[in-house]
UniProtKB/TrEMBL annotation:
Organism: Paenibacillus polymyxa
Lineage, highest ranks first: Bacteria, Bacillati, Bacillota, Bacilli, Bacillales
Name this protein carries in UniProt: Spore coat protein
């Protein structure tokens, strides 16, 4: 999608993205910590794969915010 076709995000959409970023950060940390404490190699690899998935989600959400940053109004909407 080209940025010229994008609409500014609503306040509610921004809240959802920020909440999702927080959730993905927490899940990433939990998966990484669990992988570090697991002795079983297969389970450790599964946890690391989950961590990579959450890291990808985090990157996608952050990129979405960056793409919409240029469309954000300069003054807060009332």
């Amino acid at each position: 999608m080209q940025s010229t076709n994008m609409q500014p995000l609503t306040g509610k959409e921004l809240e959802y993205i920020v909440d999702s970023i927080s959730n993905e950060e927490l899940l990433l940390k939990q998966c990484t910590a669990t992988a570090a404490s697991i002795q079983h190699p297969a389970i450790q690899q599964a946890c690391l794969q989950f961590a990579r998935t959450h890291e990808n989600h985090l990157n996608l959400l952050s990129n979405a915010l960056q793409q919409h940053q240029q469309l954000a109004p300069m003054q807060p909407q009332q």
